[in-house]
Design brief:
Distance between the termini: 39 Å
Bound molecules: zinc ion
Radius of gyration: 30 Å
Largest sheet: 3 strands, antiparallel
Helix content: over 70%
Shape: elongated
Number of strands: 3
Strand order of the largest sheet: 2-1-3
Length: about 400
Amino acid sequence: MTEWGLFVVLFVALFIGWMLGRRGTKESQQEELKKVPNDYFRGLNHLLNGQQSEAIDAFVDSLEVNADTFDIHLTLGNLFRKKGEIQKAINIHQSLLARPDISPRDTRLVQLELASDFMSAGLLDRAERLLLNIASRKTEFQKEIFTLLVDLYEFEQSWDKAIRIGHQLQSDFPTRKQAQRLAHFYCELAEEAIKKEQFTVAFQKYKSAIDVDVDCVRASIGLSNIYLSQKRYRDAIKELKSVANQDHEFLPIVIPMLRDSYIKVWGSGGYLKFLQEQLKMHPSATLIRALTEHYAQDDKEFAEQFIITQLRAHPTIKGFQELIDMQRTESDGHDQENLSVLYELIEQLTSSKPKHRCRQCGFSGHQLHWQCPSCKSWGTVKPIHGLEGE
Ligand SMILES: [Zn+2]
């Protein structure tokens, strides 16, 4: 239902509720109708004129807080918060809490809403105090309380606290998404440790991330970087190859690291086999480029035929650019100049295009963000595939 539709339904609900609360004889109903609050008609007028905010204000003024109108007030408070009118939401929720006959369950329910209001207003200390107060004993709203606390600590970047509460939430109400989120919290701590050059701490945090979510690509990349810095190339290779099973969409990011690691140890045998296997299952411009580069070391003609065949099956601008690059190095004079101009033009075109896109909300940009700057989801921003991407 649209927000507008919801307003209309609420308005009608109010009137019906108000009338039901004053049931009686026809005569007495006519008498009561005369007592319909002026604010109601004022609100109706605003509603008919499309003035939603004014309509709701009048609506709230006409509605005294009692057991019959409790749910309507609660819904209205939430509507105000969603519209960004936080102070109005706070006023409504506080007026509900001030009711002398409010039950303990309803008190906790309203406190939860009030905590959300405080969070939306940026009053994080007040929200935290309120939530910890409700959480001090087990209630029917445990999941909602923990979820809000994790949101709050995530927003504050208080990763230790977010992890502590996140584990409680995960143990009582486990979800895949929550596990993925927890893993990223550990990765945040690992990256903080790396900035302080505390590599042992970082290593442990990445391991904890893998423990909570075995498919955490970010942790595998982080661990690989630590292995590479310690010249543990075999461990780095093992970790980087695991990304293919965790989420093959991230392969374009790890292939250059994998190539560098393989060069340091066994030569190129395992590397070539891995690339060929992955190409069959998940073709991408980076994979094709890496294989072309590898074949070109021994046989440029074969490499050129390979890339042409691959471009037919999996056309990308990156692949086309690679082909032009190969041909310009083999040509000379005027041909080489022309191919160089073409190469530069493609370079300008591709460099202005985003390289990563959030699978959740569609946000796109050059950088790889582990948390989407737009929808705040974790691990949903990935390399773009298709003609202009991979
Ligand atoms: Zn997003």
